[in-house]
Amino acid sequence: MGKVLIIGAGGVGRVVAHKCAQIPDLFSDILLASRTLRRCEVIKGQIRKMCGRDIQIAQLDADNVAQTAALLRGFKPDVVINVALPYQDLPIMDACLQTGTDYLDTANYEPPDQARFEYKWQWAYHDRYRDAGIMALLGSGFDPGVTNVFCAYAQKELFDEIQYIDILDCNAGDHGHPFATNFNPEINIREITQRGRFWQDGRWHETDPLSESMTFEFPEVGPRKAYLLYHEELESLVKHIQGLCRIRFWMTFGDEYLTHLRVLQNVGMTRIEPIEYEGRPIVPIKFLKALLPDPAELGQNYTGRTSIGCLFDGIKSGKRRRVFIYNVCDHSEAYQEVRAQAVSYTTGVPAMVSAMMMLTGKWRGKGVFNLEQLDPIPFLDALAKHGLPWYVKEM
Ligand code: NDP
Predict the structure, then answer these.
(1) Which of the listed residues 7, 15, 32, 34 should we mutate to test ligand 1's pocket, taking the one with most ligand atoms within 8 A of CB?
(2) Which regions of the chain are under pLDDT 50?
(3) Which CATH number characterizes residue 136's domain?
């Protein structure tokens, strides 16, 4: 039996709340807190209807450490699942430290004025978390998250030595809008428009944004063009998977998406630094977010699937081996189950599973951890059981 505080009532928060509510034996008390209470009320109503269970809700500004700490002292959760925005990671980690509460999130901390996608600010909490005897788990969505666990599994069970990893993320779904992002638009566009980066022969190599691509045959989806991006899990995997020659991350985009993105960039709408407009500072990308469809509301008419996995190339028993480990998730099935599209679903389910690992003691540690540092087996068993089956394909 455990008490969980979920912070953030967006697309991912909705999935986490539903999935926790589906397991009353483990998540006996659930509090969903977010900046806009109305969004928590909507999720509470859906959960009552679909799971026959009541969850608690609260208004919270998680940028405010004292406010979060007060909520933690009142509710006394065993674990906090942070699915607000990356800007809130450090204040929430501070509040957990003040109150001795375990922490997990799905995205690395981002300073609002720079797109960095680095773990250094959160890794810097390691000693303080260790000394307080508590655990923080970083990046427990699908990618980062499940992809890190696939790497740990491949290292433990399938290879003597992994030399090459390509993480391949395909969303072959159709939401019916000319342009929309599948998770928070601000974070998504910051991620895609930065310079590409991959790790090879012991150092980082940079590429122009979206300048390199390849076509890959994604399971249950078919061939799709994927573009090389920098993604935060590369930083931790380079550190924790031994003997790597190269690791890269690829994501698919449709032509229409890329055309919209190019136009928005060309006119300055994706900029993250404030501009002066009629005497007031406005951040163009935040204004753009207000105009775009809410990712949490894309689910209803979404068709198609996501197909995401890791391609490993290395040595097993003296022979070369190539393996793809992947999951396929259907947007409309996700919507039927939890009223969310598959990108939110594939992020929210692993966040719930990590909380399950921490609450049941299957994953324990003092300090700050990335998922590949922990035993992949119980996580992968629970992942398959709770909505995200995964497969190993010899290539
Ligand atoms: P949304 O924008 O849909 O939701 C974010 C939620 O956080 C909103 O409800 C928002 O409130 C709330 N929030 C924002 N600021 C605060 C604050 N100061 N205090 C309290 N609540 C706040 O985003 P998503 O649900 O799509 O994404 C959630 C997280 O998951 C993001 O960090 C994203 O980067 C990450 N993610 C990770 C993935 C992975 O695979 N690892 C994939 C997809 C997403 P309000 O309603 O008022 O705006």
Answers:
(1) 34
(2) none
(3) 3.40.50.720
Residue count of the chain: 395
Atom of ligand 1 nearest to the CA of 39: 46
CA geometry: angle at 124 spanning 118 and 129, to 5°? 125
Other Cβ atoms closer than 10 A to 34? 23
Backbone angles phi, psi at 41, to 5 degrees: -60, -40
Q: How many Å apart are CA 283 and CA 86, to the nearest integer?
A: 17
Range of the domain at 261: 146-342
* Cα distance between residue 12 and residue 349, in whole Å: 9
| Per-chain mean pLDDT for the chain | 96
Residue 265 lies in a domain: yes
In order of 26, 169, 173, the CA distances from 329 in angstroms are 25, 12, 10
Q: Which of 72, 183, 310 gets mutated to test ligand 1 (max ligand atoms within 8 A of its CB)?
A: 183
At 17 the pLDDT is 98
- Global model pTM greater than 0.85: yes
In the chain, the number of structural domains is 2
CATH number of the domain encompassing residue 152: 3.30.360.10
Pocket of ligand 1 (CB under 6 A): 7-13, 34-36, 39, 60-63, 83-86, 88, 106-107, 139, 141-145, 183-184, 187, 295-296, 343-344, 347
